[in-house]
Write a structure and sequence with these properties.
Length: about 130
């Protein structure tokens, strides 16, 4: 018994059906792949947000420590007994011309060559 002509498939119809099923299957796989990528990206974003919040919390703590350390009363308490006023004999006054002359000088050499008897040049620490 033959199927009625409305149910018979031509080769073009079979090819079209296969192409249609393949397209739907690949589209479904693409959607699943995109969902997996989105979930992994959101997981990474959550981890980065967590790290940023931890860094911000640590920064706030450090800023509080710096603010406490730079508070004038804290500075006074830390320096109590260690700092004193200078003796007037330790103060040196320099006029403006001398200051400019000293600024234009090259930095002092700390190591100067010294001749030892018969051994050649060596270096010693220069005294100021």
């Amino acid at each position: 018994m033959k199927a009625p002509p409305s149910f018979q498939m031509s080769p073009k119809g079979i090819i079209f059906g296969c192409v249609l099923l393949t397209t739907i299957g690949l589209g479904s796989l693409g959607i699943v792949w995109l969902r997996v990528e989105i979930s992994s990206a959101s997981k990474e974003a959550r981890q980065l947000e967590k790290q940023v919040s931890e860094n911000a919390r640590e920064l706030r703590g450090l800023e509080e420590k710096v603010a406490k350390a730079l508070n004038p009363s804290a500075l006074k308490a830390m320096s109590a007994g260690r700092l004193a006023k200078l003796n007037p004999s330790c103060v040196i006054f320099v006029d403006l011309a001398e200051l400019h002359r000293r600024k234009n000088l090259s930095p002092p050499l700390l190591l100067r060559p010294r001749q030892k008897s018969g051994t050649g040049p060596s270096l010693r620490l220069a005294s100021r």
